[in-house]
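FORM 7B: Structural annotation worksheet

SECTION A. Query
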Amino acid sequence: MGKLGVIIVAAGKGSRMGTAESKQYLQLGQKPILVHTLQLFQNIQEVHEIILVVGEHDLDRCRGYVQDYGLSKTTHVLAGGAERQDSVRRGLDSLQQGIDWVLVHDGVRPFVKKEHVFDCLKKAKEQDAAVLAVPVKDTIKVVDSAKRIQSTPDRRSLWAIQTPQAFRLSLLQEAHKRASQESFIGTDDAMLVERLGTTVHVVEGDYYNIKITTPEDLPWAEWILNHVRGEGQL
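SECTION B. Predicted structure
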């Protein structure tokens, strides 16, 4: 069925965290958040290769993580681009020959459940493109620039998109090529694939697969680590 590559995107500065240190390098338990994420995919047997994309000033630190934590599947540590999708494209360009399927994952999502990774990949192998997501719990309002409510979408049709997002490699490469040619910046890789006219399928994950982005996320992340996933159970 072809080999599986993973691109971990961790090039953001994380200004919403309000710390001098970028969020992906903050300690969670005994290790940086990013290391938890890398170890999760290191320990998935089906993963052939991991490409890590980080900020230019963090290359040496992250290469040190690869060495110190025995992250043998991480074949490249690359400097990211101006936009997230530039970083993903650099990762795509660095994958080995023979990779047919790719997962793109946020470096600050250390709690994705392995069975959900497999579910997402399985759906992608059936349909070419799939993303993990969860139903939205809150009522969502569309609001204009003056903070006036314009509409209330049906909550049953709204899903919060997570990562990993799984694709046939050739499809995602084509989507990035088209976006680059047309100077289009999307909010995620699925959006680029959607622009090709390809249907992207949603696979339900869980609410523990949080993106650690703001200070409020840190105590919640510690609780998930200690009570739900555990360092050896990710």
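SECTION C. Observations
The mean pLDDT is 94. The longest strand covers residues 159-168.

SECTION D. Sign-off
Analyst initials: ____
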